[in-house]
TrEMBL record, chains A, B:
Entry keyword annotation includes Zinc: no
Gene: plsX
Catalytic activity: a fatty acyl-[ACP] + phosphate = an acyl phosphate + holo-[ACP]
Name of the protein: Phosphate acyltransferase
Gene Ontology BP term (one): fatty acid biosynthetic process
GO molecular function, one term: phosphate:acyl-[acyl carrier protein] acyltransferase activity
Known EC number: 2.3.1.274
GO cellular component: cytoplasm
Biological source species: Micromonospora coriariae
Pathway annotation: Lipid metabolism; phospholipid metabolism
Length: 370, 370
């Protein structure tokens, strides 16, 4: 579970780190450079390349993957303007063990893409590949932000009638100890500040009830550690994640994965049934089909989670999208990566953990060291 | 976490146990007797009493709670035919610690209702009260089925286009060790046989992926222990709980609580947005409102989970419904309790664990002892 510390020995300091912490190279006219991992998705390279090409209208794209796989998918076999091919001969499959694959496949598209970010040749990476291996690749090549034990994957979920909620971790670190949940709270708060523009995000700890007796030993200890954190509102229920009560919902990667997938599946099932009902009760077929499309779009626009999660706690921007991402999802994930880079979330996180470390040196309690 | 063993010293053998295991007293003409806990719900006693009175059309109801609370809610202050008042002066509040409340409030409506079942004066109990205290009350008064370490709360979720899925545990036992998950699988399989009439239910272990590398140490060990169980299909994702791939989804009570509440909230939010969209795109207001009602009903009928969960592993029938249960929910929960009693699920569970115990004595591996 604790994947990242298992390969700490491989960790290197990224070349672009000082620039990232100091503030971004965001001069007018300079286009964002995003490394897109074209290999390892569930649906093959085609939708990923199509999405990357669409994104290349506005950003520079580094397409990372086996040359023989990617080149045939380019128009005329040649990268169009704004697109560069970066060869990475190894592919990590979805079912592979992340640690074993990271050791064995040093030229995987994941490690190469993360290496481009670490070397300062890309501003961000986007991957629809094996989540565990992607987390490791980012942690290994970019390194962790000092003070972060484990990165967390954060997803922005829309809430009808209220601002969105950041849910983390949704799968980077399946197990959790109280200290890690506290770190996730800091990561999520900085993400909410950077991406959602919230000055003082409200943070909840996902539990099985609001009451102090709920949550089991791990949550109860994390709850005590979080008590002094600005914006911390207490333990929340899963209802509250979509309820507008908090801006950040903190949990371990196992529970976050279950919550997110339950959400996605329920949304699909409900939309499907609602459309069946609209069709059944609509007297005119053509009108019904038209209404159906508009209802679907309205509900999906109102409720669908972002197609990619941001990996927080590593020294660079990494967006991990679904293994079944469509071209539109990949294009949108490049957009999320751009927002992450421009909002300076990595530098914010580094400063938050550095401040907490200084507090620790001065002997004060801080939200991070509990 | 392990609430039940904390109070094992209080455990008594219920009087009706032999009859329950042997087969039920289900002579034609005899009405079912259900003890309904009228106290401790979030919305007060009113909807609970209303639901119980509605249920009393077809079953005999024992209304359990403080006399002064319940009597004013009866028509004319007198129990109608089919309803009997059972005084229980203590009330366990939602936020109370279950163990402390169980020790301190020996005449709580929960312990009295469970005692009615244990004494054979009721066939089942229904409560919208504090879940942890309800689990303890049932375990303490009825006792656990021999071989069961912890009871599990099982909910039937509808799946569009397929048979329903039994999800357990949804909150009786928040923590889980591999052996308990195996017990939950046996409990869930017997519930699916008894209530859904499935000869060979397909059982999945809820995890964060299908791959063998997923799930963390607890799931991976449980997966190995379950490998020889008939009907076990492997680790599943949250998508599969509503996907028609399994009939029983097994997890710990913490994750089950998060999954169920995410499901309920997403369903509400999606239906709400779909209705807004139908209304927005419908040219005629009155028609839209009418359609709205029909769409809502169709979606809710198609997707809403049962309003009550069955507590499995105790020596009697106990249905725990939501703290915010409406009168209709309480009435439906009495119906679930009746189905549980008539289907003989408690006897089935006892026989399954007894068989497993005999196998153990003969030195064979069994699904339960792993």
């Amino acid at each position: 579970m604790h994947l990242v510390s298992a390969v700490t020995c491989l960790c290197e300091v990224p070349d672009g780190w000082d620039a990232i912490v100091a503030g971004h190279d965001d001069r007018p006219g300079r286009r964002l450079r995003v490394a897109v991992d074209a290999a390892g998705a569930d649906l093959g390279a085609e939708p990923v390349v199509a999405g990357a090409l669409a994104a290349a209208e506005t950003v520079d794209v580094l397409l990372v993957g086996p040359r023989a796989l990617v080149r045939p998918l380019l128009p005329g076999g040649v990268p169009p303007p704004g697109v560069r091919l970066v060869d990475a001969p190894d592919v990590v499959a979805m079912a592979e063990d992340p640690v074993a694959a990271t050791y064995a496949k040093r030229r995987s598209s994941l490690l190469v893409a993360a290496g481009e970010v670490a070397a300062g040749r890309a501003d961000a990476m986007v991957t629809p590949g094996n989540t565990g291996a992607a987390v490791l690749a980012a942690a290994v090549r970019m390194g962790r932000v000092p003070g972060v034990s484990n990165p967390a994957l954060a997803m922005v979920l829309p809430v009808p009638g209220a601002g969105p909620t950041v849910l983390l971790d949704i799968g980077a670190t399946a197990a959790a100890v109280p200290d890690w949940l506290v770190e996730f709270a800091v990561l999520g708060a900085e993400y909410a500040r950077a991406r959602l523009g919230l000055a003082r995000p409200r943070i909840g700890l996902l539990s099985n009830g609001h009451e102090a007796v709920k949550g089991g030993p791990v949550r109860r200890d994390a709850h005590l550690l979080l008590a002094t954190m600005p914006g911390y509102t207490g333990q929340i229920e899963a209802y509250d994640v979509l309820g507008g009560r908090v801006d950040v919902a903190v949990t371990d990667g196992f529970t976050g994965d279950v919550a997110l997938k339950t959400y996605e599946r329920t949304l699909d099932a409900t939309v499907g049934l609602a459309l069946d009902a609209v069709r059944a009760f609509s007297p005119i077929g053509v009108l019904a089909r038209d209404r159906q499309r508009r209802v679907t779009r309205a509900v999906r626009d109102g409720l669908a989670a972002e197609p990619g999660g941001a990996l927080l706690g590593v020294r660079g921007v990494c967006v991990i999208c679904h293994g079944t991402a469509t071209a539109a999802d990949v294009e949108a994930s490049v957009g999320i990566a751009g927002e992450c880079f421009r909002s300076g979330v990595v530098g914010r996180i580094a400063r938050a953990f550095a401040a907490s470390s200084r507090q620790r040196l001065r002997g004060r309690r801080s939200p991070v060291d509990g």
